[in-house]
Amino acid sequence: MSSDDIQSPVPFAYDPPQGPLEIIHQDRDMVVINKPAGLLSIPGRYHEDSALSRLAADHDHVYAVHRLDMYTSGLLIVALRRKAEAELHRQFREREVAKVYVAVVHGAVATDRGVIDRPLRREGGQPPLSVVDLEDGKPARTRFEVLERTEAQTRLRLYPETGRSHQLRVHMLSEGHPIVGDPFYGADEPAPGRMLLHAAKLTFKHPFSGVPLTLESAPRF
User: Which of 46, 73, 82, 154 could disulfide-link 149, Cβ–Cβ 3.0 to 4.6 Å?
Assistant: First the structure.
């Protein structure tokens, strides 16, 4: 579950960026956009405006195959045909899609690379969050690689090997390095206006041809 699914008793503040969506790739089976931070992936309980609803204005059929948190920017795949939807769903479900994120976190991460292997459990409440639970959590694994660091912040590549709710955000928090600007798990410091987490690269097979496809989007932070 992502922030798209948060069901609060009152509508949350929602002021998504306006303007046309940036198309990274498009063919008869799918469209891949560079979703801006602040825009829902799919319509929420109180808000219709989303990446999916905007694409629906230009296409006869659109089908969500995965989601990004509202606060996360980057590559988002939307299927345009049912067969493409089913095949892309299968690839995500069976972990055949390789995902790379870029993040900026608080503090200097000590090691240049490593693995965070901590199970996660969904916590109740409004909004529902995730927590590390070594006994009852579901397996969750993230690899990381430091790109650059200062005493105050570290820029990382993150490679999620599983797809748990808020996995990257909770794993970095569990390391003592919350993602800068995270409204739920972030440090108690002035935020930069958005969460510094970006879905930068996806590698998967085209849902019709089966040809390997790699798409990239550079973060704007």
Answer: 154
- State the Cα–Cα distance between residues 181 and 20, nearest whole angstrom: 25
15, 27, 49, 69: the catalytic one is 69
Does residue 221 form part of some domain?
no
pTM of the model: 0.92
* Residue 203, domain member (yes or no): no
Instruction: Output the DSSP codes for 86-120.
Output: HHHHHHHHTT-SEEEEEEEEES--SSSEEEEE--E
State the residue for tokens 């939307």. 78
Tell me, yes or no, whether 120 lies in a domain.
yes
Question: Tens digit of pLDDT for each residue in 160-200?
Answer: 999 999 999 999 999 999 999 999 998 776 667 899 999 99
Alpha helices in the chain (DSSP H): 51-56, 82-93, 167-174
For residue 190, what are the domain limits? 101-197
- Residue 206's CB is within 10 A of a number of other CB atoms, namely 16
DSSP 179: B
**Residue 171 φ then ψ, to 5°:** -65, -45
Residue type at position 13: A
Q: Both 21 and 92 in a single domain? A: yes
Residue 188 bears catalytic tag: no
* Residue 112, φ and ψ in degrees, nearest 5: -70, -25
| Distance (Å) of CA 123 to CA 130, 156, 166 | 5, 27, 11
